[in-house]
Amino acid sequence: MRETYMKRLLTIALLSAFSCCLHAQVVDATVCDILKNPASFNGKIVRIKATVAASFDRFALEGDGCNQHVSGIWLSYPDGTKGKAGPVALVEMQPAQNFAGTIDATQRTPVTLDKGKDFKQFDSLLSLQFKENSMCLGCTKVKVTATLTGRLDGVAQAAITRDGSGKIVSWTGFGNMNAYSARLVLQSVVDITAQEIDYSRAAAQTKSDSTSETTLSEADAITAGHNAAKAFGPGNAAGDQVERAAAAFGKPGDKNGVVVGFGIANEVPKGEGSKGSESSPDGVLYNCTFNLSRLQGDALTRAIVHSGILVAQLRSPLAGTEHDGPFETEYRAWATTAFSGVASGQKTLTIYGGILLWNSAWPVADRTQLLDTALKGALAGEGLTMQ
Questions:
Q1: Which domain holds residue 74?
Q2: Which residue stretches of the chain are H helix?
Q3: Is 290 contained in some domain?
Q4: What is the tens place of the pLDDT at every residue in 357-381?
């Protein structure tokens, strides 16, 4: 009897100690704390109070003033969540079946998400779209500040390693272009407040514009990209960039390693750390996912052009741009996206945050400077700085 009692007491004591340890494993940190040394937080359960934004190709905890080239932590839901919020377009690399380089096969502890009312509110707020008649890419209505808890995946540096011929042999990082050194896989969220994004300034300049509500097919959007390039005429630098973007997707039926999918890319990628089922000319799969519900009219063409430049730059950087970072690559992608709109006769183009990238009413002499200013402002707002 006494022995049974002692065993029961010992069991209670051990369970209490285990609960204590589990509680102690939750680490409170800021976005900037983590970005200073992401690898030191790898695998830890962290709790972060931060502002979260879902935009065109970003779904991230913002890190204002972190002094990093990418000042943000990518946000992912666990596999199977079926959330509504996330980026509109996403490019992620995956080893192809014939990849001969080094694969990061890190086994990560699964995360179970509390999908109660707090998460539902959080996810619903971030999926609200700003609606207007003109084209507005990645334009959600609000940012959300909250306290988020989850598993932190971190690497010392998000980077791509190439051999002497320029072929990719390994990479580290998460999210769009695998450019984020840290990722939070969400476990729970509380203390949610929303801040509406001001689109009034751009809306005042785009009120006379409109766009079709008919969604193009993938093939039609790629064809439209090629046609936009031709509109510039031969030997035009802007046209060459638009063609480079459209050409990244190959010809119909090509198995060129660019895999197009449709949906909301807000979960940890399936098969992360393993090879894909297809081969690729350079051993890498470039998985491009588009949320068609937010790409009405010719917006899918703009998304194809934007993602095409990202793929082309990852796969085969232009001479002199081999060391470009996410800022430079996104700058080039957004500029090319605007060029494709200009060639298609589009009057205006607005992006997330109420940034007007293009307005046909701008004075011809001022257009280059106005586009440059808009691009730099947009990228700074997304936590990107020059390499």
A1: 25-91+98-196
A2: 2-24, 31-36, 117-126, 200-206, 218-231, 237-247, 299-315, 326-343, 367-381
A3: no
A4: 999 999 999 999 999 999 999 999 9
